[in-house]
């Protein structure tokens, strides 16, 4: 094996496998990361960046399959790479090879392939929830940035889990994981069924559901939370289905009447901050 | 002029100038929008999308120089285009010409060039502020998404203005305007000088400055706002300068100790919601 860069300790040089051919089969899972739908079909996800790598490697629940690191990023990752199980290959490539594999300029230079755990069912997640609980429920969230931000907020305010209907996008898509700074790998979630099914199951389990809407009846700062709260958020454009809103307690974040409503991820942060155990309620 | 699409009313067909040559000089301001720094140098900005166009055309303070609309978007914009002053050219192009001019696939298909107004000075903005006021102060915010989101939140909670130091990025950059859903064109801002200068001037003007920090001393839900509040936010990575934090009241958003802090834009939303006049304080 050829020497990588002079600053690298000996162990790292021996731990890492250098690959100079972008066509090498071992790199197949990383090919065309942006276009490819690794999701579901292959039971894997792609993670990128140092922060997310930290989360993956410090959480034994995730089966890390391999890492792909740009040669000049190795030296800054010694701490992380020490945590990498010895049977997980660490591939190292040049900038040219990295960009050729990824299919676009991959500035971060840190990628990993992980195996997905079996998805949670709504029922299993509800069964495992504590007596005092805070859940987030998402309806039709199709933007990966928003999905990632909502997970980040849920982790920051220690929501117990996130339920989302089948029309919501996949939180384990690369960009959603990145924006979540790894929270998509930490906060338990279920993504199945219709929003009506999720709401019905949560109500049966004793959750008080607060549907966030710019036209909500109660100010979130006046709403009295019970022991089990579920915050329901819909898309920014269409909002939550009218029929559903009519059957639920609706809450609003008090704000200017003359401006477009808040971004849904920001709204989730404000509502989570208000209803989390950290707010002193 | 040739007929555009059958659904267009007569007036629109006569109002719009079709251009079939991507090299046409009238399209020069739109060339390579992504790479070019239209900012400052030419005293202009580029806006994109229907929501932002609405804001521009309904606010006479902005000198709209021209619009560039994809042919198949015209029919959905009749309301907006009626508001467009008669001396402002509305150019219409095919998908091919649009992408060739922009330099990348321009999905939204709605662009406008506006003239920048003279920038506000810190002093002028402070002089114009009401007795009871809420300001946002930004230090080193270099990400255009975050900048845009902070403006959106400031508009939603009716902050009076935003001050930012000279190391913060330009809120009138195309992407920041888009993410702000036009708020970057509405909320008055000053971008000049060091953060120390801004803070000193606000203190002289009687502002109580709350510096947001994960290590802040006071919980934002316990902080007592005075009549003039300025919320100071720094970058996510480095946070606010230590020397500055030592001299100011620091506040924190109460959250999990085991997770990466919030995104700065989300933090701005939570703090603005807490300190805005809508919170009932």
UniProtKB/TrEMBL annotation, chains A, B:
Identification of the protein by name: tRNA G18 (Ribose-2'-O)-methylase SpoU
Gene Ontology BP annotations: methylation; RNA processing
UniProt keyword Methyltransferase, yes or no: yes
Gene3D superfamilies named in the record: 3.30.1330.30, 3.40.1280.10
Keyword entries, A-Z: Methyltransferase, Transferase
Pfam families in the cross-refs: SpoU_methylase
Domain of life: Bacteria
Source lineage: Bacteria, Pseudomonadati, Pseudomonadota, Alphaproteobacteria, Hyphomicrobiales
Domain named tRNA/rRNA methyltransferase SpoU type: residues: 134-272
GO molecular function, one term: RNA binding
